[in-house]
From TrEMBL:
Protein name: D,D-heptose 1,7-bisphosphate phosphatase
Organism ancestry: Bacteria, Bacillati, Bacillota, Clostridia, Peptostreptococcales
GO function term, MF aspect, one: phosphatase activity
Native organism: Geosporobacter subterraneus DSM 17957
Keyword Hydrolase: yes
Residues where Zn(2+) binds: C89, H91, C96, C98
Marked site (Stabilizes the phosphoryl group) residue numbers: T50, K100
Pfam families: Hydrolase_like (PF13242)
InterPro entries linked: HAD-like_sf (IPR036412), HAD-SF_hydro_IIIA (IPR006549), HAD_sf (IPR023214), Heptose_bisP_phosphatase (IPR004446), Histidinol-phos (IPR006543)
Residues that, per the record, bind Mg(2+): D8, D10, D125
Entries under CDD domains matching the protein: HAD_HisB-N
Protein origin, superkingdom: Bacteria
GO cellular component: cytoplasm
Length: 171
């Protein structure tokens, strides 16, 4: 079984002060590539799990989102960083099993990639990210304001990567 780190996108990998509706809107944080590289080097598979209700709301299309994710993966690959997969939920009002705080995206990836959820982490900047990770059986790392249900709290993804590596060594 493989260990993994599940990352929310907006607010974790990239700045989300402004909506990300097209590739040129995507602004990776300066520490993102370094953080993911550390996780890759430690043997973690890294996946992005992101709510993208803007599709159902009509702000952008599935094709637009594919272009945004292609841009993200292209930028990260320049730093020899690997994202093992990207899952997104296009729903906003529709009842589904994939929109966080439900764990559907994480569970789907875990099944497809033989992920050991008990040795894995969910990193997010919103309470719904943490709740999805907990429901899936992952340890959780909250970026930003504290949340009582999170296992850990840090300021950014690079701090999260260091924390995850220190926790993995302790196990």
């Amino acid at each position: 079984m493989q260990k993994a780190v599940f990352l929310d996108r907006d607010g974790v990998i990239n700045d989300n002060k402004d909506p990300v509706n097209k590739p040129e809107d995507l602004k990776l944080y300066p520490w993102t590539a370094q953080a993911i590289r550390l996780l890759n080097e430690a043997g973690f598979h890294v996946f992005v799990v992101t709510n993208q209700g803007g599709i159902e709301m009509g702000y952008f299309t599935h094709e637009d989102l594919q272009s945004i994710h292609h841009q993200m993966l292209t930028e990260l690959s320049k730093h020899e960083v690997r994202i093992h997969g990207v899952e997104y939920c296009p729903h906003f009002k529709t009842r589904c099993k994939c929109r966080k705080p439900k764990p559907g995206m994480i569970l789907k990836i875990a099944k497809e990639h033989q992920i050991d959820l008990g040795s894995s982490y969910m990193v997010g900047d919103r309470e719904m990210d943490i709740d999805a990770g907990r429901k899936a059986g992952c340890s959780t790392v909250k970026i930003g304001a504290p949340y009582k249900n999170a296992d850990f709290r840090v300021d950014n993804l690079l701090e999260a990567a260091h924390l995850i590596l220190s926790q993995a060594k302790a196990k």
